[in-house]
Amino acid sequence: MQTDKNIVGEIYRFVADLRGVFVQPALFEAFGLTVIEAMSSGLPVFATCYGGPLEIIEPGVSGFHIDPNLGPRNADQIARFFRDCRDEPDTWTSISAGALKRIEENYNWELYARRILRMTRIYGFWKGFTNEQREPLNRYLDLLYGLVYRPRAIQETI
Fold it and tell me: What is the pLDDT of residue 124?
């Protein structure tokens, strides 16, 4: 396991230069920072279909989802990808470009900063309320959970 961030970045670039892939077979990944790091280096990614990578990767465009419980099927999928790359040289380049584009459009510092500022504004707005006024906040959060996050959680478990 390599924990030095500078060396990890160099490893990603080295593997990308050799037209390799990044495989992340975790049983569950809450967010998927390693997936984003690999994709930002242009590596085609094969990552767990449980958790964050489900949102990060567009299957067949910027990477691939794998089920960590199905090792032989994953090995076949990765081998098929390399066969496709051999038979059609633009395959690797296409997925690599898709990964770079996905990261550029969805996981950049400007978007992250805007999300953080938006959350602080929401928190700052609700922080000024008294305890009696917090009941609407709790109803709002319950509504938000029920309409946005609960369906996503159910979809990911199916």
Answer: 66
Q: Are residue 80 and residue 28 in the same domain, yes or no?
A: yes
Do 44 and 83 belong to one domain? yes
Q: Are residues 70 and 136 in the same domain?
A: no
Q: CA-to-CA distance for 25 and 1, rounded, in angstroms?
A: 15
Structural domain span for residue 64: 5-107
User: What is the tens place of the pLDDT at every residue in 109-156?
Assistant: 888 888 887 777 766 665 666 667 777 777 877 887 788 777 776 766
Give the CA-trace dihedral at 155, 60, 24, 37, to 10 degrees. Answer: -100
User: Could you report the per-residue pLDDT of 35-94, keeping only the tens digit for each?
Assistant: 999 999 999 999 999 999 999 999 999 999 999 999 999 999 999 999 999 999 899 999
Per-residue DSSP letters for the chain? ----HHHHHHHHHHHHHTT--EEE--S-BSS-HHHHHHHHTT--EEEESSBTHHHH--BTTTBEEE-TT-HHHHHHHHHHHHHHHHHSTHHHHHHHHHHHHHHHHHS-HHHHHHHHHHHHHHHHHHHTS-TTTHHHHHHHHHHHIIIIIHHHHHHHH-
